[in-house]
Design brief:
The chain has 270 residues and is mainly α. It contains 14 helices and three strands. It is globular, with a radius of gyration of 21 Å. The longest helix has 19 residues, at 177-195. The protein has three domains: 5-25 and 139-201; 31-134, Orthogonal Bundle (Endonuclease III, domain 1); 215-268, Arc Repressor Mutant, subunit A. Strands 1-3-2 form a three-stranded antiparallel beta sheet.
Amino acid sequence: MQLSPKDVTVFQKTIVDHYKKSGRVFPWRETRDPYAILVSEVMLQQTQAERVVPFFTKWMKQFPTAKVLARVPISAVLKVWQGLGYNRRALNLKHAGEMIVKEYGGKIPVDIQKIDALPGVGPYTAGAIGAFAFNLPSAFIETNIRTVYLCFFFKGRRNVSDAEILEMVEQTLPRSVRQWYGALMDYGAMLKATVGNPNIHSKSYIKQSVFKGSRRELRGKILRLVTEKGRMTLGDAKKNTNGVSAEEVVSELTREGFLKKTGKSFRLAR
């Protein structure tokens, strides 16, 4: 689908006008510090922005730079992260901090491919960091951005691919992308609150699984237990498992670098 210059101008004006009147305020939008933006983007993966705010604020007070993050133990990282969920993101951030210090002298490189190579990043997060920290004109999609383009350019369509949406993102990209992407995300959030979620018509749509009684819930319980007590036995992990294999989850967490076995007990890896 090829848009005319007029179509692009009208679309951009609609998004920007809404942002000027109703744009949301978040602490990561008040900075251009690439490290702070990395932290926010990893926290925002699969988590609503409003819920991230207190965790982001606390994290930046405890670990204000990649150099600080690189030298603290995993236990300190998990204590700050506790309650946000998807703990693998915290471990990825810790490893990303170490990589940034080791390979880039503590500074995030101004290069999308190098940012993408950081642990836990991936194409979307790399594009977002590039846009918000360095104003790099990269095209990327997340759930709210996808919502906007589905509503404007794919009404009535089902099984819309991200490749088709990315083509529209590229056609409508302005010169200054930092504010533009924030405006798109806010417009998408507004659409979800008022007209529902059109992402169900996207090929990439996956309905979130139930958390209660899930493997993900047990992972969180085990990590919280070890963080609070310092050590844990397999017997401790087996309590209240709701049918999920505690042995498998503990083994998984050990392989991933969260836990370390010492004799018959487990503690957090350093």
